[in-house]
Amino acid sequence: MKSWIQNYLKEQARVAAALPIEEIQTWVELLQSARENGAQVFACGNGGSASNCSHFAVDLGKGASGMIAGAAPHPKETKKRFRVLSLNDNVAWMTALGNDVSYDDVYVEQLKNYGMTGDILIAVSVSGNSPNVVRAVEWANSKGIVTLGLVGNKKESKLRQLSKRSITVESGHYGQVEDAQMHVLHLLCYAFIEGQAK
Fold this sequence. Notes:
Blueprint lengths: L1 H16 L3 H17 L2 E5 L3 H14 L21 E4 L4 H10 L7 H7 L5 E6 L5 H12 L3 E7 L5 H5 L2 E5 L4 H20 L5
Parallel strand pairs: 1-2, 1-3, 3-4, 4-5
Helix pairs in contact: 1-8, 2-8, 3-8, 5-6
């Protein structure tokens, strides 16, 4: 067991070290521009990737918008807040769409209500082939929404091919990819929380 844990952590460190720093910086700059222009930031995924999107939305919407812990009742705020929404967090809407339309449409149908040219969609998937995420990216591309794909290392990845920009986690191990996804998403948020991005 000890050896397995050591090997897992060693491989996780390798995966994290291989993340593309320049591309992550570009994503931070895109988020900075979105906030300045009042654009909406969306995120969506399935399973562990959905949980990562939920976590990201909290950190970007609260922490990166200047809501500092322990500062109640009047927390410090940045001049502009992020407009961020995790599309996998509206359970009633998702189940209604899944039941009445198709599970493949649970994200794209929400985007049709909210998405506008200049917005950002961060699509997160280990396989890169989740039909509901892929469909959302296809629609977003057709409407001038900036699509950012965060995927695992799979040769055939529709999401990587469709996204305007993408980051590939160099692993096919679901747990390690999901861990590295959160590394990326945390970096996007903490660049603002820790003042590296203004």
